[in-house]
Amino acid sequence: MARPLSLQARSLAAAGIALAAFLGLAFFALDKAFFDAALSSQRDRLQGYMHAYLAGADTNRAGNLIPPEVGPDPRFDRPGSGLYASIVGDHVRNAKERQWRSPSALGLELPFDTELPQGATVFRGPVQTSLGDLFILSQGITWSVANRPELKLTLHIAEDSAALQNQVQVFRRTLLAWLGGLGVLLLLLLLGVLRWSMAPLRRVAADLARVERGAEGHLAGRYPAELSGLATNLNNFIDSERERLERYRNTLADLAHSLKTPLAVVRTQLESETDGKELRWTVLEQVGRMDEIVAYQLSRAATSGRQTFAAPLPLEPYAEEIVRSLEKVYADKQVLCEFEIDPDTRFRGDQGDLMELLGNVLENAFKWARHSVLLTARPGRSADSRSGGLDLCVEDDGPGIPPDRVEYLLQRGVRGDERVQGHGIGLSIVQNIVKAYGGTLKVGRSKTLGGARFDLYLRSG
């Protein structure tokens, strides 16, 4: 398919067509006006010649008309000059003659035989004759002198049309040259205006190209008011696409991290000398857990965090399920996990969020603990909010986390010890879930066990 025309080419083509139509109509209108003015001038000139002949004519005692010997224009006295005069009627020169002609018209075939009544005026032309096209003005008059017979006459004045046609042709050539030059000038001016007007669009396209190449992160230029909204929407679209891509990457990483524990449990059971029934039960349990993890991670993009009207979930059953799995993974460490869970403690939110939260915090504690882990949970309130919530605390007797390393370890992909197996995203997942529920996460040192202490507060409404 042919490449579509650019906006500039479309605008220029449309303006060119409109301009051509306008200049064409202007040409015909001006040409018609000039021709009408030239024709009116032609008639006025012939009328002037007619009045001059009448002013120079006279009658003799016999009542015959005596035309002037010399015409008002030298061409009347020069044969075949292109300017002719004739008087038709009774008593022209003498009673026998009925027509008088100027010297320029003698012996020529001219349409001067028409006779008109008094006051009638006829202007014709161009009339085709053997001498060429002529403009002819004819007028009927009555000549009356005291004590002499009244004469009824018709005067004819004719002129070759070549002069008028030459004027018209010169005017048309001049007009065509000026209008054509004006059209070209206007198109060039329009092209300049279009390029200036389209410059912001070209700048947007150039900025988008830089964004595509990675040279820029956003459309950061200053654009006209008509394009500022477009630039803002494009920047929002770029941000949303980047966030979507980052969310997909994080979801895949979170999925891999979440499946690590069930797979480790299965691997541990397969490597141990466990009887078939217990192994089968463990594998089925962990496969079900993995199925729940996959379903949770796939729907996580639609999770909106805390849910005011969500059904409250007890913590202890889910904590026990996670701890059982972790005790199998870290069976060689013989870690003892104790619970101090208030019976009234409930979690208002998604079950998958709860499992992900407890699983990552407890797994981190099991990984670094020497022998003991403590999980404490109770209904709580934040210091700056009157709304109810949930307080969680997980402590271990491991080496703990130095205060200057806390912010660093909460970053995604960072591990506390590169020699320890892991992905470094568990604590980042915890932090994201806590933020989604409008809560807080604090990391410190356990006064009870001496290791790390994670205090989590989650809002429930």
UniProtKB/TrEMBL annotation:
InterPro entries: HAMP_dom, HATPase_C_sf, HATPase_dom, His_kinase_dom, HisK_dim/P_dom, HisK_dim/P_sf, PhoQ/CarS-like_HATPase, Sig_transdc_His_kin-like_C. Residues 254-461 form the Histidine kinase domain. SUPFAM superfamilies: ATPase domain of HSP90 chaperone/DNA topoisomerase II/histidine kinase, Homodimeric domain of signal transducing histidine kinase. Its main location: membrane. It catalyses: ATP + protein L-histidine = ADP + protein N-phospho-L-histidine. GO terms for cellular component: plasma membrane. Keywords: ATP-binding, Kinase, Membrane, Nucleotide-binding, Phosphoprotein, Transferase, Transmembrane, Transmembrane helix, Two-component regulatory system. GO terms for molecular function: ATP binding; phosphorelay sensor kinase activity. CDD domains: HATPase_PhoQ-like (cd16954), HisKA (cd00082). SMART domains: HATPase_c. It is an enzyme of class 2 (transferase). It is found in: Membrane. The chain crosses the membrane at residues 175-194. Its EC number is 2.7.13.3. Residues 195-246 form the HAMP domain. Pfam families: HATPase_c (PF02518). This is histidine kinase. It comes from Dokdonella immobilis.
